[in-house]
Amino acid sequence: MEGFRTASTTHISSDLTVTGTILTDGAVEISGTVNGDICARSVIINPGAEFRGEIVAENVSLAGRGTGRITARSVAIKGTAHFKGDILHQSLSIEASAQFEGSVLRKTDEAAWEKISETFVIEGVELTPEAQAAVQALKSEFAQRNQAA
Length: 149
Fold this sequence. Notes:
This protein has one domain. The protein has two helices and ten strands, in the order ββββββββββαα. The chain has helices spanning 110-118, 129-148, and strands spanning 9-12, 17-19, 22-23, 27-30, 33-35, 38-45, 50-62, 65-77, 82-94, 99-106. α1 packs across α2. The protein is globular and about 40 Å long. 32% of the residues are buried. Mean pLDDT is 82; it is low at 1-6.
C-alpha cells in the first residue's frame, strides 16, 4: 500500500488542519491534521501527520498518529505509527515498532466489503444505504464481540 495512488489524490499538506468530513472517490494523502471523518478509496497518513475520527476506505496506510476507527479492506500500520482505536479489516499488517492500542476485528465476508466498495464508484461519494448498512453491520459485530470478551 505504501505509495498507493489512484487517478486523483487529495493532498493535505503539513501546514494544514482540516476540520470536517472528507468525501472523495480518489485517494487522500495526509501530511497535516484532519479532525473529522474520511471516506475515500485510499487513505495515506504520512509520518508526522495526524487524524482524529473515522476512516472508511478500501486501503489505509498509517505511518503517523491516529485516534478513532478504521474500516478498510486492507490496513497497514507502519513502524512510525501511533494509533488508538478500533480497526475493522479484511487484511491487517502491523510493523513491529508501531504503537497500537485498541481492538481489531477481521471480517472475511466478501459481500460486506463489496457493498462498502460500491461507495467509491458513485458520484458524490456519499455512502449508499447499502454501504451504510454494511458498515453498521460490521460495527455491530465488533461491538458484540467486545461485549462477549
